[in-house]
Design a protein that fits this description.
With 257 residues, the protein is α+β, with helices and mostly antiparallel strands. Helices cover 25% and strands 34% of the residues. Strand 9 and strand 10 form a beta hairpin. Helix 1 packs antiparallel against helix 2. InterPro entries: Flag_bb_rod_N, Flagellar_FlgE/F/G, Flg_bb/hook_C_dom, FlgE/F/G-like, LlgE_F_G-like_D1.
Length: 257
């Protein structure tokens, strides 16, 4: 009986984590460049059941195999989905879209400095702070292709297709765009990513000022998945409640006897 209880409880844990992932996707549907995540659910190793008999000599022997028994599931990992979102023209000079060439592999990203660490982001919605540094949506310093902070002589600037930033007639810096080929090396930090391994190379992309890539969250599908996960959670919850009532009944019978 306890095996079924543990199986249902394990499924509830995995489904709760799935709900958290889907809710986070739903909450970032308006976040530019956001990449939706998927939870990867795996099953624990199955147990092989066998029929055992005791011929009376104190030794047991296997008469035949009954079959396999599942021992539950767990959420193995969370993987971001790097498909492209829709492109919107905003007209804002601080919005930048990275247009990848045909046959491009991996994911093009901007580099930002957060708390002394270099992170990578797909969110091209920037801003110019009071000191005229170019900042990301999370407040990090946007980095050039040389890995340096970008400080402008004026809050007004233009961006060429090759990433050259010009302000007050001065060539300030070249905006950095990096190519992450092995997405498995990415570790999510908020809505940004940390690269575990060698630093990514510069990406051969085209910069488009005044455009933004929207989140790649499919709103309808995410809502449907969230409702399905909720119903599955409720079903497993009822199983746990049924086992709990059975255990209470067994205890009552034991006390009467």
């Amino acid at each position: 009986m306890l095996r079924g209880l543990y199986t249902a409880a394990g499924a509830m844990n995995a489904l709760q984590r799935q709900q958290e992932i889907l809710s986070n996707n739903l909450g970032n549907v308006r976040t530019p460049g956001f990449k939706a995540s998927n939870g990867v659910v795996r099953s624990f190793p199955e147990m092989l059941l066998a029929q055992v008999s005791n011929p009376g000599n104190g030794r047991s022997r296997v008469q035949g195999q009954v079959g396999t028994l599942s021992t539950g599931v767990y959420l193995q990992e969370t993987m971001p989905r790097f498909s492209a979102g829709s492109i919107s023209e905003t007209g804002s000079p601080t919005d930048v879209y990275l247009k990848a060439p045909a046959g491009f592999t991996g994911a093009p990203m901007f580099a930002v400095e957060q708390n002394g660490e270099t992170l990578y982001t797909t969110n091209g919605r920037f801003a110019v702070d009071e000191e005229r540094f170019l900042r990301s949506a999370d407040g990090g310093y946007v980095l050039s292709n040389a890995g340096a902070r970008i400080q402008l002589p004026s809050s007004e600037f233009t961006l060429s297709a090759d990433g050259q930033i010009t302000s007050l007639g001065e060539n300030v810096a070249t905006l950095g765009a990096y190519q992450v080929d092995d997405l498995a090396t990415l570790e999510q930090v908020g809505n940004d990513y940390r690269v575990n391994g060698d630093a990514p190379a510069l990406a051969p992309v085209t910069f488009q000022q005044g455009f933004i890539e929207e989140a790649n969250v499919n709103l309808d599908q995410t809502m449907a998945d969230l409702m399905m996960t909720y119903r599955q959670f409720e079903a497993n919850q009822k199983v746990v409640q049924a086992y709990d009532k059975s255990a209470e009944r067994a205890i009552e019978i034991a006390r009467v006897r």
